[in-house]
TrEMBL record:
<dbReference type="InterPro" id="IPR014729">
    <property type="entry name" value="Rossmann-like_a/b/a_fold"/>
</dbReference>
<dbReference type="InterPro" id="IPR050203">
    <property type="entry name" value="Trp-tRNA_synthetase"/>
</dbReference>
<keyword id="KW-0547">Nucleotide-binding</keyword>
<protein>
    <recommendedName>
        <fullName>Tryptophan--tRNA ligase</fullName>
        <ecNumber>6.1.1.2</ecNumber>
    </recommendedName>
</protein>
<dbReference type="InterPro" id="IPR024109">
    <property type="entry name" value="Trp-tRNA-ligase_bac-type"/>
</dbReference>
<feature type="binding site">
    <location>
        <position position="132"/>
    </location>
    <ligand>
        <name>L-tryptophan</name>
    </ligand>
</feature>
<comment type="function">
    <text>Catalyzes the attachment of tryptophan to tRNA(Trp).</text>
</comment>
<keyword id="KW-0963">Cytoplasm</keyword>
<dbReference type="Pfam" id="PF00579">
    <property type="entry name" value="tRNA-synt_1b"/>
</dbReference>
<dbReference type="InterPro" id="IPR001412">
    <property type="entry name" value="aa-tRNA-synth_I_CS"/>
</dbReference>
<feature type="binding site">
    <location>
        <begin position="9"/>
        <end position="11"/>
    </location>
    <ligand>
        <name>ATP</name>
    </ligand>
</feature>
<feature type="short sequence motif" description="'HIGH' region">
    <location>
        <begin position="10"/>
        <end position="18"/>
    </location>
</feature>
<comment type="similarity">
    <text>Belongs to the class-I aminoacyl-tRNA synthetase family.</text>
</comment>
<dbReference type="GO" id="GO:0016874">
    <property type="term" value="F:ligase activity"/>
</dbReference>
<feature type="binding site">
    <location>
        <begin position="192"/>
        <end position="196"/>
    </location>
    <ligand>
        <name>ATP</name>
    </ligand>
</feature>
<comment type="subunit">
    <text>Homodimer.</text>
</comment>
<keyword id="KW-0436">Ligase</keyword>
Length: 327
């Protein structure tokens, strides 16, 4: 059975973008792959985090993974900082990463823009991400479109290590969903929807109440044309809403365009809101049960132990290949 690894940062409450771009495909894939799903808290600290908020977000993310349909008995769900091999291999991979290639990452450029003091971890984060993936002999990494460049770097680092030291890492393939790979901000449809966006109206959180979802979608930026048509270049707002609608219901974009032919944006936005609310309702109900139970800690303990077993074997081989330690 092939192996999948994917991680999500506990840098806020997940958005519908994280769900449609990442979690939804994890749920589909989990029966056919050996899956590792990681809460990458060490990535979250590449930008300042409030200690108590971070703790809360870690637990919340674990509950959201499970509430969305991840089965913790067949998949390994764990927290990155509880398996120290991640930072160990991350450091080793930093030693073969070049500053130039790290500086070329668009996420680094975006997140460092306008910052007075940029943490060095923000720059070296892709090497840690490569370590996350390579520790588990990962074959496939399912991610949203925004992570494509980091995945390319991971592949380069794996090949570089294998050529320079010993052939121990599997070079992973990236898997990007056909629809929903990049959900855009509701307020600035040229920008990716992000959970850490300071404009609350730009994203739909997976835990938003139905009324709030409706309000956010109704105030989403569209255009003055009044025609429901997919045209990313000229109608980015409407195209984004069509993508969200289609990813939530499984209806094709062409069918949705037909359904709303001759109707205004009011009807269309109500349809989008209903689709999102119906998608999130069962997840929110399950989430409420889980977040109040002790079950989560037991699941995360079990995940940590399973992940450590595999990570321990890889780090041993990687250290030996590089000549670290005594044997
Ligand atoms: N807008 C999006 N559309 C589709 N997929 C998305 N993903 C993120 N945003 C979208 C996918 O979600 C997974 C987890 O992402 P992450 O939390 O590790 O980091 P991120 O990509 O930086 O996500 P955010 O929400 O934008 O977080 P912040 O605001 O903290 O930077 C990945 O598979 C990603 O592709």
């Amino acid at each position: 059975m092939k192996t999948i690894f994917s991680g999500i940062q506990p840098s806020g409450t997940l958005t519908i973008g994280n769900y449609l771009g990442a979690i939804q495909q994890f749920v589909e894939l989990q029966n056919n792959y050996n899956c590792y799903f990681c809460i990458v808290d060490e990535h979250a600290i590449t930008v300042p985090q409030d200690r108590l908020e971070l703790r809360k977000n870690i637990k919340s993310l674990a509950a959201l993974y499970i509430a969305s349909g991840i089965d913790p008995d067949s998949s390994t769900l764990f927290i990155q900082s509880e398996v120290p091999e991640h930072t160990q291999l991350g450091w080793m991979l930093q030693s073969i990463s070049y500053v130039g290639e790290l500086e070329r990452m668009t996420q680094y450029k975006d997140k460092s823009q306008g910052q007075e003091a940029i943490s060095s971890a923000l720059l070296t984060y892709p090497s840690l991400m490569a370590a996350d993936i390579l520790l588990y002999n990962t074959d496939v990494v399912p991610v949203g479109d925004d992570q494509k460049q980091h995945l390319e770097l991971t592949r380069n680092l794996a090949q570089r290590f294998n050529n320079r030291f010993n052939d121990i890492f599997t070079v992973p393939e990236v898997r990007i969903p056909k629809v929903g790979a990049r959900i855009m901000s509701l307020q600035e449809p040229s920008k990716k929807m992000s959970k850490s966006d300071t404009n609350q109206k730009g994203f739909i959180s997976m835990l938003d109440e139905p009324k709030r979802i409706e309000k956010k979608i109704k105030s989403a930026v569209t255009d003055s044309e009044g025609i429901v048509k997919f045209d990313k270049k000229n109608k980015p707002g409407v195209s984004n809403l069509l993508t969200i609608y289609s990813s939530c219901t499984g209806e094709s974009i062409a069918d949705l365009e037909k359904k709303y032919e001759g109707k205004g944006y009011g009807d269309f936005k109500q349809g989008v809101a209903n689709a999102v609310i119906d998608t999130l309702r069962p997840i929110q109900e399950k989430y409420e049960q889980l977040i109040q139970s002790d079950e989560l800690d037991a699941i995360l303990d079990q995940g940590r132990d399973k992940a450590s077993l595999s990570a321990g074997k890889t780090i041993k081989k990687a250290k030996k290949a590089m000549g670290l330690g005594r044997k």
